[in-house]
Amino acid sequence: MRRLSEAAIVVLVLVAVVAAMAGCVSGDSVSGKVRFHRDVELPAGTTVTVKLLDTSLADASAIELGRDVIGDAESLPVRFRIEYDGDEIDDRREYTLSARVEVGDQLLYINDTVHPVLTGGHPRNSDVRVISVSEFDQCVEPLRGQIHSSFWDGDLPDDAALEIRLWDVSEPAERVLVVEGRFEDLGQFPIHFDLPHEGVEISRHRRYELEAEVWFDDELQMHIPNAEWRRTVLPFCPDGDELSIVNDVFPVSEFPAE
User: Fold this and answer.
1) Residue 23 forms beta bridges with which residues?
2) What does the pLDDT profile of the chain (258 residues) look like in tens digits?
3) How far apart are CA 161 and CA 144, in angstroms?
């Protein structure tokens, strides 16, 4: 009888251990980070909400399976973890992540691309990329660029200077100067430059034109003559050492302004 009691105790202990382990792993979850294309500080009181959604039916509302709400988020990226009931997951259905970044009633960032998870060969965990809902994305990084030329070999004259002007040309009749800079001690092509960035706002919905001029001997020597050649795409401010502006200049004597 004693042996049976000891055996029963062992069984009970094993059952308890298995139950505890099951309790630890039964809470399935997806995790990742909410990211903008660059690191950004968020206003005080910002809330980040990430949802796990069943988006299988295109003509029906998504079904929420879980969410993580990060209150008082200070910056992006920010980490999230969403717990869900694994019994609700059907391998034949589609599941995606969505994210909203808000301060009060004001929406700041939202994802505009699909982030599938769990089924269909997609990973369990995924980062969620968000965009700014503001028309403008204020730069906090320098606007880095390079100016090239295939018409000049070797060093530029000591008095050579590069003048850069970036224009908003969305309304041709009302060109707006966005930012400008002058650079000396140029050395050789390609010429690297950083435009001032404080207060600069770049819109994903507007068009920009770059003016680049090289002066020496008190005369304009090289420029970008064709308006179409001056067009540049600035969808957002660059990350790290990424170049936002790359263009070529041509001799004024051979390529006069159009």
Assistant:
1) none
2) 445 556 555 555 554 544 444 444 446 999 999 998 778 888 899 999 999 999 998 888 899 999 999 999 999 999 999 999 999 999 999 999 999 999 999 999 999 899 999 999 999 999 999 988 887 777 767 788 999 999 999 999 999 999 999 999 988 789 999 999 999 999 999 999 999 888 888 887 788 999 999 999 999 999 999 999 999 887 667 666 678 899 999 999 999 987
3) 17
Say how many C-beta atoms besides its own lie within 10 A of residue 80's C-beta. 24
Distance between CA atoms of 10 and 4, rounded to whole angstroms? 10
* Beta pairing, strands 40-41 & 78-85: unpaired
Buried b (16+ CB within 10 A) or exposed e, 196-233: ebeebebbeebebbbbbbbbeeeeebbbbbeeebbebe
CA 180 to chain CA centroid, Å, is: 25
Query: Both ends of the chain: CA-CA distance in Å?
Result: 106
Nearest in space to 226 (alpha carbons), one of 210, 246, 244: 210
Q: Is the pTM of this model over 0.70?
A: no
